[in-house]
Amino acid sequence: MRNKGKLVFFDGQKALFLLLDPVVSILLALAAGAVMIWALGIDAGLAYRALWQGAFGDANALANTLLYAVPLMFMAFAFAVAYRAGVFNLGAEGQMYIGAVLAAWAGYAVTGLGHTAHIVLVLLAGAVGGGLWGAAPAVLKAKRGVNEVITCIMLNYIAINVTNYLVNTRGPLRGGSTLPATPVIQDTARLSKLIAGTRLSSGILIAVFCGMALYIFMWKTRAGYKLRAAGLNAQAAECGGIPTTRCAVTTMIIAGALAGMGGAIEIAGVHSRFYAEFSSGYGFEGIAVSMLGANHPFGILLSAVLFGALKNGASAMQIQAGANAELVKVLQALVIFFIACRWSIAKLLAYKWGAAGKDGGGEAREEDG
Amino acid sequence: MKNIIEMRGIVKRFGNFTANDHIDLLVREGEIHALLGENGAGKSTLMNILYGLYRQDAGEIYCKGKLAHIREPGDAMALNIGMVHQHFMLVQPFTVAENLILGKEPVRGLRLDMAAAKRRIRQVSEEYHFEIDPDARAADISVGMQQRVEILKILLMGAEILIFDEPTATLTPQEIQDFFEICRVLQRRGHTIIIITHKLKEISQISDRVTVIRSGKNIATVETSKVDEGRLAEMMVGRAVRLRPSKERREAGEVVLEMRDVHAKDPRGLPALRGLSLQVRSGEIVGIAGVEGNGQSEIAMVLKGLAPFSKGEVRYQGRSYGKGASVQRLIDSGVSHIPEDRQKSGLVLGMSIRENMILGMEDWARFKWGPFQKQKEITAFAEEMRTRYDIRCTGVGQEAQSLSGGNQQKVILAREIARDPQFMIVCQPTRGLDVGAIEYIHAQILEQRKRGCAILLISYELDEIMELSDRILTIYNGEITAEYQAGQVTSEQIGLAMAGFRAAERTGQDVPEKKAGDAV
């Protein structure tokens, strides 16, 4: 009816509103963090300034922030695409390991290719490895009804230990050095540096490209439509003729491929070879990044940079302000905490201000037949 | 009789929306007072104010002649006002007794005195003829029984004035009668009852007086015995409403769909259809009458291709379904479906109207461009449907979950009819909708019949079946028990057949046999 427009957010407002959530959460987290830092007897202002300087202070700082952000972007994509399709992908870590080790192998064992061709091969190897690893829990769920959360977590350990074995003393992919790692990849397999003199590779461009591709896939293609429908309401999707189990498998292959490609980029852009246990838990941080980014590719790009900045600024904060670098993990946790309870906060505020907003809107919206 | 509750000039606004616009409500002591209005008319808001869940922006409430300041439900309880909400709030794994003492547990020393609690519950339950078993688990008792537990809960808190918000929405016809009986018992014991409803029939059955609310304003308060349903509908909607759809006679065409001796199981693996046979011809509406849970859902599931059947045959336009058909192929070949539960099966609530509008048609040539979707075409289609079906929304980008029930049903109806179906499975098309919407939905279904579509109507509302159908089949325990021509049967006859009595001697023919003969 005519009053309805006042109650429902139309699109432009909706986008703004979506952004409001994480921004408020971050501000609340920073405020709570400040109290904590102050309680430790440290100047919170100084600590935050140092954190900012360390993360964005100069070209080198910025490059390192983005460097940390790249794998997080891929891991968050891997979580988000599955989440949108109604599958809880906690297996990005394992998918990344398998992708990375395959990419490293393609990087050192294959010779005589041109630069572009070799890079493409390395990325493909990563995607295939991750994709297969991601498909496993989905197929198990479709065929046997096994809970994907449990298989994903178990497959993480299997992936880590299998890759450990591959590069261990007698492992088949072990390189010549004393490190538990593969041989160094060919020069043709290395991603070029984006900013000279820094460690930042062109991997970030691939990440941004993947984010845009993911957006187009999810919101502009028929397959993406089906995945989202299946994720939001499997029963209605089935009624509309969408095969939801097949959707879940497709989704997990895509998610795994993204995680695997993230692993490949870490190898080709940063480490130049596969190390045993090279990841510091990117797969799990990716979940937080995805949630903070509203499980949307563009949101993820932003939230990954934030997490990269926290990680990168941590040491500066420790050196300049004397705040332990681990405090950054507390800040990350606080961000997640406030994101998780954003609805309760919104409700609480609405209640306190006597708006009775949500419920009133519900009644008023129940309008007309 | 004196007024026990007087609400005068109540105003409540939500933002720019005025839910209650100077409403007066006078409730007499010991009466059953109905509050009638369409969804969103503001009746629940008014009662939530009386119960202290909302605060009015203007106006006064008098309780037993004294000005009352009701800020929260506790204040209402202190004035002996209790409310049973539409959605029950029982802790499912708890027993009835545990639910009833929640928050005010009787203790002896440090121990919970369960025995005393149960004694008290049994005593009050007997007093009001509730027949409540305090040891039953909330999850295991029927909806009607859960409602009684809710009523008992507020009685135990000392409620004298009871507010029921849409009490019959989730009840079966028999449970509704039982509920009315409870209302009468409560009334005899001196309680005052306010019932929020939009169902006209119930008002004449149970209430003494009725207050009609429309768009936040009160239209009138009348003695129920002095008005008829048509007049009430007019007051509620604001225009003359056709309560009985007009339907011209027409000859049915050839058989479009046939089920022969179909056996199928329900999701728990128990037999649900036991040798069910039926035919639907083009241009006719076949109504399936029966008590919920006698295999109706499974008929829809089988015909939709969502559930397999173990024995028998289903033929659509002469072609056999085989053992379960693909949903997509059926959709493409002209089978449409209005699902029983519009929010669970009909719509993806988190998607926009335009995205919901093409569900099931997303791969159709009209909406695709290679792997991509033709966004503009989809929007244009959704806009066209919005205009044609008068879907009230801010735009087709609005999420389906923010629509009212009637508008949600219109989205489904628009989508399913847009496919030019040859056969429609229509389940519970008007559940929970108000008169205006029901009138519209019925007209649309009849329009499809006129176009020559074969329609199978499954509804638990006997009135709906009798008004729309050309032929009526009764279902009991997974079998068709009787067949009637519309207009040649009374609701009592159908009621008997629904309860499992065969009607063979009445129509002079055994129905399943006749079917088998036809099929040769």
Task: Please tell me about this protein's structure.
The complex is a heterodimer of chains A (369) and B (520). The N and C termini of chain A lie close together (10 Å). With 369 residues, chain A is mainly α. Chain A contains 16 helices and no strands. The longest helix of chain A has 30 residues, at 115-144. Chain A has one domain (43-322): ABC transporter involved in vitamin B12 uptake, BtuC (Orthogonal Bundle), CATH 1.10.3470. In chain B, strands 6-9-10-3-11-12 form a 6-stranded mixed beta sheet, with helices on both faces. Chain B is of the alpha/beta class and 520 residues long. The model of chain B is unreliable at 503-520 (pLDDT under 50). Chain B folds into 3 domains: 1-80 and 201-240, Rossmann fold; 256-334 and 422-519, Rossmann fold; 346-419, no CATH class. In chain B, a hairpin with a 2-residue loop joins β11 (209-214) and β12. Chain B starts with a strand and ends with a helix. The chains are: A mainly alpha (369), B alpha/beta (520).
What is the architecture of the largest domain in chain B at the second tier of CATH?
3-Layer(aba) Sandwich
Low-confidence regions of chain A: 1-11, 355-369
Q: What is the SS-derived class of chain A? A: mainly alpha
* Gap from first CA to last CA of chain B: 70 Å
Write down the domain tally of chain A. 1
Widest sheet, order of strands of chain B: 6-9-10-3-11-12
Instruction: Quote the average pLDDT of chain B.
Output: 88
Molecular shape of chain B: globular
CATH superfamily of the largest domain in chain B: P-loop containing nucleotide triphosphate hydrolases
In one word, what is the shape of chain A?
Answer: globular
